[in-house]
Amino acid sequence: MSFRSNYIWTVDIGEESAKIVKALKTPAGIPEIEGTYQDRALCKDKLFLYKSKEQIELLSNCFDDYRRGDQINFLLKDSSIIIETFSMKPVSKTQLEDIIYWKMKKLKLEHGKKWHYDYLAEERVEVFEQLGVEEKNIDVVSVFAEQTLIRNCQSLFKAGGLKVSKVLPQFIGMGKLFKQNALKHILLLDLGYSKASLYQFRNGLLINYLELNPDLSLSFSENLSLIVRTMENQLRLFQDKREREKSLLCLVGGGSLSPGIRVWFDDHPKWELVNNRDLLAEQVAGLEGVSQTSLGIFSLGISGLLA
């Protein structure tokens, strides 16, 4: 009897639909997309607020050949999640954890035990060529999420006979992908159906995050113009002034598939629009016939796939 390798599932439950990508980790360690699933009957409000028996059955049906030992990576994104980025002089791990906990308190998150927090940190060395000195700093990104949010996610899948292996902040997978491709400064724009988020990465680490809430009194094109201006301003603030090359821009999210949306961000003097397919081409097999949405989900969850 032959046994298949374990599947790795990446799950994104958005405002309008649930998107799931199934991948197989081959003996060579290269993940290969086996299938994709999208259902508008499954969305965040229906699954998390009501959690009816019918909804749970619909979710379970998406995992048609799930077996014990498979890995499910759930992409965590919610308006209640707080993302903090900052830079500081190098300190010990214990001191850094104390600083992050202090920041949680400073954000006035009451009842700290009800919040879960995690962080990533990387050392950055700035070389001042004319002065002949080096300056060391660490860049830190911390994420604060209510424990009830994570527990609700885990219990939702458990009710359907499924086990969540990893709960991943939405942006973390793309950061790992950027680092593997040795890409220095990247903008990631997540366009949802009613809101947008802008992520800025430096050497694979998130250095700035903004929520871009649309003005409902404005037209669709006017809101896109505001997003473009905000992106330009953020580049001026956070991009290294010594770099003259364009930043790369990745578009993800269901809203990025709207007709004509890429025209707004293409051919811009400050960034170059790239395709997720190009970033994944050397690392993922089975790309033919896979939608841009699926590739976005897959790349956002790739940290779990390549772990």
- Fraction in beta strands: 25-35%
Quaternary: single chain
Q: Output mean pLDDT.
A: 79
Distance between the termini: 28 Å
Which structural class best describes the helix and strand composition? alpha/beta
**Helix fraction bin:** 25-40%
What sort of overall outline do the alpha carbons produce when their principal axes are compared?
A: globular
Radius of gyration: 20 Å
Low-pLDDT parts are: none
* Strand elements, count: 13
Task: Report strand order across the widest sheet.
Answer: 3-2-1-4-8
Characterize the largest beta sheet: strand count, sense, and whether it forms a barrel: 5 strands, mixed
> What is the count of helical runs?
10
Order of helices and strands: EEEHHEEHEEHEHEEEHEHEHHH
